[in-house]
Write a structure and sequence with these properties.
Strand content: 15-25%
CATH superfamily: Aldolase class I
Distance between the termini: 37 Å
Largest sheet: 8 strands, parallel, barrel
Strand order of the largest sheet: 1-2-3-4-5-6-7-8
CATH class: Alpha Beta
Order of helices and strands: EHEHEHEHEHEHEHEHH
CATH topology: TIM Barrel
Structural class: alpha/beta
Amino acid sequence: MKKPNLTLYLVTDDKFFQGRDLVQTIEAAIRGGITALQYRFKNKPTRQMYEELLVLRELTKRYGVDLVVNDRVDLALAVEADGVHVGQEDLPPDIVRKLVGDKMYIGYSVNSVDKLREVEHLPIDYIGFGSVYDTTTKANCKLVGIEGLRQAIKLTSKPIVAIGGITHYRVMEVLQAGAKGIAVVSAILGFEDVEKATRSLVEAMKGYYRKLIHESTLSS
């Protein structure tokens, strides 16, 4: 099974692709520096999703970017995705694991610190945790806050990918809290110049790692 590379994780959303070419937009984000793509659409026919995923599978392989499919284990298997991401209303992770075996990694959405205690034993490879900040992308999102993120990271041995309202100026705070990756929607797709928006997030992440190196040099 491939080890997840979810450092900068783009999640798609129906509303950001009205009148926009899916493949060109994703390729621009890849050029900008995303390390993983989650294909998440709620209002498309299965056949259309399958055909789009085939193209995106080829594209992500060419650039060495992870492809994750949201909810649809059947589509993930059909296109040989790197991972599948499920939530509390989808197939349970233990059933997903039986279906995918060791072919792909499994992500799971958690939206409260209390829920973490219930998922530690599940056969999942990472946790999507949020919403860390206010977001308009997801209806009825539950706000966990940056303090909730810090608590969550202390409570689980599984890598946490933070999601929800994360912009380039919040990147450092999220990484300082201990998140292993950052998942975004509107911070990339909400801009006309997707590649530029992605690069600004990458630069913010590099700034954090430069700061870490500088501080470790000073303390040694």
